[in-house]
Every structure is written in C-alpha cells, then in structure tokens.
Amino acid sequence: MGQLFAGIIFVIPTVRLVLNFFRNVAIKRRNELRRQAANRVTADSEDILSKLSSAAQLAASKVDPRTLKIVYSTEIDLDLQEDRDASEFGQKLGKLDTE
C-alpha cells in the first residue's frame, strides 16, 4: 500500500509537468503569431496606410440621408412596408421576364 502512494506521489507531478510543458509550447507559439500580426499592422506598409487613409476619409465624409434609399421607416406600418417591397420586387422581376 505504501508503494502505491509513493508511486502516485511521483506520477501525478510528472504528468502535470509534461502537460504544462506542452501547454506552454502552445502558448509561446500563439504569442509569437500574435506578435507577428501586430508587427504587420504597425509596420509602415503602403497598403495599410492607404487603407487607413481611405477609412479616415470615409468616416469624415458627410452623407446626405435624403440621397439614401430608405428601406424601412417608422412613419409607415412595418406590414405595409414589406408588402410594398414585395410588390416592387415582383414588378422588377416581371420586367426581367419580359426582356
């Protein structure tokens, strides 16, 4: 019985040591991939700088809501809006069939 306890006392820490080793290897690999991705983003790449510039311009631009096609409005009941959209779709589909 004493040998069983001695074996358990030796085996459990050894198993934990092995599991922790593989877990730490996976964590180090994941951290290295994160570091590489962060370096790619923070590098002064022309592609990334142009994308950031265009995103900033788009965010700064003012959009006139009257020029946008409003899909749903709170002024009309939702059921009526869906029927209107369905009839518009049917009309457009009919135009395609006749062409």
Search tags:
3 helices, transmembrane, 99 residues, single chain, At5g03900-like, mainly alpha
Q: Topology, please?
A:
Elements: H1 2-42, H2 46-60, H3 78-98
Question: Could you explain the architecture of this structure?
Answer:
The protein has 99 residues and is mainly α. It has one domain (2-98). It has helices spanning 2-42, 46-60, 78-98. The radius of gyration is 32 Å and the shape is elongated. The mean pLDDT is 79. Keywords: Membrane, Transmembrane, Transmembrane helix. The chain crosses the membrane at residues 6-26. InterPro entries: At5g03900-like.
Quick gist of this model?
The chain is mainly α and about 100 residues long. Helix content is about 80%, strand content about 0%.
Radius of gyration: 32 Å
Number of strands: 0
Number of DSSP helices?
3
| Amino-to-carboxy terminus distance | 91 Å
Query: What general outline do the C-alpha atoms trace?
Result: elongated
* Mean pLDDT across every amino acid position: 79
* Secondary-structure element series: HHH
Q: Spans of 5+ residues with little confidence (pLDDT < 50)? A: none
Q: In total, how many domains does the architecture comprise?
A: 1
Task: Find the structural class using helix and strand composition.
Answer: mainly alpha
Proportion of strand residues: under 5%
Helix content: over 70%
Main sheet: strands, sense, barrel: none
